Amino acid sequence: MITMGTDKTMLEEIGKSSIEELFSDVPLDVRVDRLNLPKGMSEMEVIQEIRSMLETNVNADECPCFCGGGVYHHFIPSAVNAIISRSEFYTSYTPYQAEVSQGMLQAMFEYQSFIAELTGLDAANSSNYDSATALGEAATMCYRLNGKKRFLIPEAMSWEKKSVLRNFAWGPGIEIVEYAFDMNTGELDLEDLRSKIDANVGGVYIEVPNFFGVIDSHAPTIKEELKDGALVVGINPISLGALKPPGDYGADIVIGEGQMLGSPMNFGGPLLGIFATRQEHVRKMPGRVIGLTRDIEGNRAFCMTLQTREQHIRRSKATSNICTNEALMAVAAATYLAILGRNGLKSLAEMNIVRARRLMNKIGDLDGYVSPVFKAHHFNEFVIKPTVRPEKLNKMLLRKGVIGGLPLDAHVEHLSGHMLMTTTETHTDSDHEKLLNALSEMS
């Protein structure tokens, strides 16, 4: 605590006679006598107060969480947090001085390499904010590629992602058009999509798996339907341990959410936007790209190869003015993927598929539940229809120590009364039984 004697000494040092004089430039009519704040507390008291507040929360480690829809509860190896907690990663900013940033630059290069291999594309940027902003950047990139202002998206998609996309599209005047889904399979309605593809379409966006967790069998055929438009594919990166890379079936751009690669749910953020493309489109891609080169002595060196944000280059040449990054989350993702390895990721993806299939079938065996609603192959999410309203059901489940699924009313118009359920490798057989027992009591 600063004493009055110290205050006086400090004021004398800066040539002021009173603390009031420090605020002489602030007009009297806009000043307040005091703030309506509680009395200050010691550090110990603050910690005790925060702990008492946190005790009212329910978290996914205490209660099994079956709510996904974009953010997921996966196991994170301890090594991930140990590495990203190192000061050279945790406190680093944009590595403008390559000579003192080789560690961070190499980590970003490794992350890009992992994403390029996973997606089957040639290059990836070193991250966007999240999957929603990555989608917005993909739509504007399609416009830069071919000058066409119509962008097709699935009706079956979260309303938050649609909202962010429309914000990105508003400036350049890109028209967002939705195509329908098949009410039987949950896959895209191919005939409806075909009817909306014309010479004005600059890009088509599909998700594999989609918002319902369905692995869309039409995905490999969409590129053939397009003429000059670009194919944009949204992915869950863990699913690529078992599914074909989008680059193999013609994707020009791949975007996705990388939170599940080593980052906790953490109240919905920070997240990690994945973005990859083909070599011929790299100069139209937003964000930054880290490259590998040689220094003047012939040693291996990493540097920022492409910097396409407006603060780096002339505004008219920039691909985006907000495509900043989530570098720490990207380091976490690279660490996570390095720990799992190719076989580990494959096993994890298969585990999620198997657990989802078992759970959806067991829910379907209960009285009062339709599960799964869609007759298709799923990854780790699926839609159910309970007899109880989803919002009410979730409140009842919470009282049983279970965090329920995602009500779909706000997201998909035709699915009022439905909910999206998610399961991952973190759920044990007893977690599933706990959910099933609670559901059976409420049917």
Describe the structure.
The protein has 443 residues and is of the alpha/beta class. The chain folds into 2 domains: 78-336, Aspartate Aminotransferase, domain 2 (3-Layer(aba) Sandwich); 342-442, Aspartate Aminotransferase, domain 1 (Alpha-Beta Complex). Helix content is 36%, strand content 15%. The protein contains 13 helices and 13 strands. It has a 7-stranded mixed sheet, with helices on both faces. A 4-stranded antiparallel sheet has the order 10-11-13-12, covered by helices on one side. The chain has a two-stranded antiparallel ribbon with strand order 8-9. The longest helix has 38 residues, at 327-364. It starts with a helix and ends with a helix. The model has no long low-confidence stretch (mean pLDDT 92).
